[in-house]
Amino acid sequence: MSNAAIYLDPEAYLTSGDVLMGRHSAGESFLRGFLRHGDVDGFRFWNVAARPLPELEAMVDALHGDARPRSWIGMRDRGRLGEAGAVYLPGPFVGREAWQRSPFGANAYSICGITHTTASAEIQADIGQLLVAPTQAHDALICTSEAVRAAVEAQLDAIRDYLAFQFGPRRTPEPQRVTIPLGINTADFARTDAQRATWRERLGIPADAVVALYVGRFSALGKMNPGVMALALEAAARETGREVWWVLSGWAEDAQAEARYHDGARTLCPSVRYVVVDGRPAETRFSIWSVADVFISLSDNVQETFGLTPLEAMAAGLPSVVSDWDGYRDTVRDNVDGFRIPTWAPSPGQGRDLAFGYANGWIDYSSYVGLAAQTTAVDIARAADAIAVLIRHPRIAREMGEAAQAHARTEFDWSVIIPRYQALWADLAARRAAAAPSPANPDNPWRMDPFRAFAGYATRHITAATQVVLSPGVTPASAIAVLKSPMASLVAYNFPTPDEVEAIVGRLSPEVPLTVSGLLADFPAGRRYFLERGLGWLAKFGVVRLA
User: What is the DSSP string of 304-372?
Assistant: First the structure.
């Protein structure tokens, strides 16, 4: 099977921090799944954050120890990504990486990214780059649900129409967009009677009580409004006459935000016993499912694209009551694994003022997605009826939970999803092999060479014909001393080394000028580019003079 170098910045994969986002859970789950189920002879990791290798080795070992060899590609060794054939990015920044690949040639390797939320300005800019950057047909963006793929295509259609109107159609084939769902390691979420008893005792919940579980971030604007779930649970509790407990496992940005969230939700479900759990510790994330009889998640927010928690609930064997929203409809089968509740949103075109306000900075991202959610309706009566069915009919709840668990294991376990990734990478490799030769292009118009962009600023430019003489009285020792002074060493990126400075000073004299090309002729070819530029540094601090 085909392989890919994994872009390994720990921030994208670790769930142990105070801030736990869906992309962190998805990244950690993918990496563990790839280590377990990747059909490869060894693993290649791109150390993009330049972290110490022992730290990264320990991180990988903690996720899944494996005897297969690992090779590490340094942060600046982008040219080595071709050894794997493709690079896998834990986000949708395929276009950004295409610009960075350009100096090596567009056929140097394939780029494969993945969507998480697609509503933010930064991510929408990344999606737009798919059509503007030097992306190729042997690159791909994995869309985790049909809903998010439709959103990506809608944005690309709008950008494509604009670009075609202004400049004509794109001349090179576009990168692939493919739908592959997120996976999970289903065994991690198995419920046990022991865990159920432990959690219920810890939270003071009677053994025979009905418990609904929500797992997710506590943000009414940025995640989902809990009021809809509260109203549905309250109605179900009153309809059935049963005492219903609601366990919410998650976290909030700060204590005040969390208090507002829970205080607001509690007021809408006074008959429901309301329990809050910090959902960040790993032991909680994988065991809290055992406390519940039903999972509930009535998402109403465009920041959601796939939704891992319904899939985790399915793996735990819980029936679900979820909104018919984005990726939820790709996982929870209505009337089979649980119930999907209809949603209503305003028609396209009714949110232009929200987009305009966000574009101008008048409203922030949370307000932008939160305002859209405030006018997105979930059918509360249908949700209450669905919860009531699962409360009244334990047999239906059990059968739905069993069906959900089987579906999760056969369709969404990483053992099933990873081969789909590798099949995609193999297809990209075949497309790359069949592509016409692609020359290297070192110029990125979005990040221009400053000496090209601002060529009109200086009086003259240093060229191969520029003449260089040594400033009077300069010796190798004095040159190195001045170049190490604080003002001369503010920054140093690919500058001449002390040995190179000594060699340049040794070749020059104050009386007989040398051209730049003559001065640098005996230096290694790979260093002449940096040394020619470095002559400006030597002239700036009086080591040499240019004429």
Answer: -SS-HHHHHHHHTT--EEEES-TTHHHHSPBTTTEEEEPEE-PPTTTTHHHHHHHHTTSS-HHHHHHHH
- The predicted pLDDT at position 74 comes to 95
CA atoms of 31 and 13, how far apart (whole Å): 7
Distance CA 379, CA 377 (A): 6
3-state secondary structure 220-256: CCCCCCHHHHHHHHHHHHHHHCCCEEEEEEEECCCHH
Question: Which CATH superfamily, name and number, covers 186-411?
Answer: Glycogen Phosphorylase B; (3.40.50.2000)
What tokens does 320 get? 């679900």
The distance of Cα 307 from the centroid of its chain, to the nearest Å, equals 14
Q: In this structure, what token pair is assigned to residue 147? A: 């809903």
Residues in the chain where the model's pLDDT stays below 50: none
Helix (H) or strand (E) run with residue 274 in it: strand 273-278
Q: What letter does residue 79 receive in the DSSP assignment?
A: G
Radius of gyration (C-alpha) of the chain in whole angstroms: 29
Residues of the chain with CATH 3.40.50.2000: 186-411
In this prediction, residue 72 carries a pLDDT of 96
Q: Which pLDDT value is given to residue 11?
A: 86
